[in-house]
Amino acid sequence: MSPFSALLRKDLRVELRTLRSLPAMALFAVSAFVIFRFGLDREQLDGELAAGVLVPTLLFAALLAINRLFVAEREEGGFDLIRLAPIDRPVLFAAKASALVIYLVVLELIAVPIFALFFLDSASGLLPFALILLLANIGLAATGTVISTIATMSSARDLLAPLILLPLLIPLVIAAAGAGEHLLAAGGPDYGRFGTWLALLGLYDLVFLLVGYATFDYLLED
Amino acid sequence: MTPLLALESNTGYVAGAYLVFVLLLLIYVAIMAAKLQRIQRELGSLAELADRPSGRGGGRNATQVGDRDQEIQAVRQGGQR
Amino acid sequence: MANALRSITLRRLAVATVLVLGAGFALAFFYAPEDADQGFIQKIFYLHVPLATAALLGWIVAAIWAIQHLRTGDPKYDARSYVSIHISVIFGLAVLLTGAIWAKGSWGVWWEWKEPTLVSFLIVFLLYATYYPLRYAIEDRERQARYSSVFAITAGAFVPLNFLAVRLAEPLIHPRTFSSTGGLPDSMLFAFVVCLAGMALLWTTLVWFELDAKSASGNLSKIRRALEATA
Hints:
The structure holds three protein chains of three kinds. By secondary structure, chain A is mostly helical. Helices cover about 80% and strands about 0% of the residues of chain A. Chain A has one domain (about 5-220). Chain A has nine helices and no strands. In chain A, helix 5 runs antiparallel to helix 9. The longest helix of chain A is centred in the middle third of the chain and has 31 residues, at about 90-120. The radius of gyration of chain A is 18 Å and the shape is globular. Chain A starts with a helix and ends with a helix. Chain B has one domain. Chain C is mainly α. Chain C has one domain. Chain C has seven helices and no strands. In chain C, helix 2 (about 45-70) crosses helix 7 and helix 3 runs parallel beside helix 6 (about 140-170). Chain C is globular. The chains are: A mainly alpha, B mainly alpha, C mainly alpha. The interface of A and C includes residues 170 and 211 of A.
């Protein structure tokens, strides 16, 4: 079994066994939806409002997930064990990023249908939106892995990771919300600029996967 | 009359913008000046420290040197014997 | 000997900055004509855009120093990267302030979300502002430098992406932009280029100055340690 799949299975198995962060993330998302219902005083959402509630909620849930995923590793000393093992750093990066993508996909599989249940008239825009979310997840995982690795080795790790990540993730929010505005529109999905947003997300993913791949060595050097 | 007024209020904004730039620059210079003063003070105290061996602190030095001198003498005498 | 050379260069840089920037501003006010659309308020353009360009280039330069630092491990590259980011952040603050004043003068509002350059600049500024808490949170000096370099590279890659994203966010029909550099009459373009050169020189002078001060402090600590050891 390649080191990549070994690491990936380890992360996933740990998560499945303890089921730590998934329920918390899902719960967080649902509570956030309720808060938005009252905060906006709306029972139906579509277009830009729908995107404006769904995308930030998923973003903040993802930040919680990132903190959990890497903080846990650090506290249990698992991180040090992996660092001592003769695994290629880029493989480690790929494994961690992939684990994060899978978590986020599972989270969205739970949270988005609930969102649709609460607020949406029709679910027809959800399938293309799922593609948007998938690409956004990849970008999130790339930057999230790099930045949280930096943060967990510092003293202010809880605060630092979200602080640095929020500006970095804004292009993803722009793309996801921009696409969501059209796909979740009241009259049914509209594919205006769909290609543009896909392209932006793809470019972001490419750039930051590359950056993560190239710099992960230097993060785990000691 | 009106164009003149418009020019004046716009001049205010332009002046404000350039003023902000100059102020930021001056604040930076002031901070750097403070840093340089600190460096000067540090240099001064280091100069004093360097001068000390010939003064009070030198007493301690001289004793240590004196001890080593005695050691060296003892070894030489031992060698000669 | 090297230090003497450095101080001569710093002096020359400073003089060049004053001359070029002064000439640039003079050109902006006395040579370039007043803008037909915006009026006198457009003169801020010769301050705001060169500041922004210098800041952005400075952040890219910082990323390049950071790459060099990771490749060689030489702490001098880390110092250069850190100072480059620091000076660019100060320039960035000036960009945001002058941009707000320009917006107020042009459109009567202190902030305009529809101005894509101003908004992207805010985001980038926010990102680089986190550089300081990042550095202070890592105590081990070598690790601090390495992690900061990774950050500088990530942020450097982010800058162009972010500008693209914000541009795309604004519906193509409605952006409110300050006049762009495209389609400028020659006299304005000339004044602008001189101001741009002046700002680039100012940036370089300040970075050089700051690096000098840092190395002086470093040397002083070294001397103090040596003196206290032998005292």
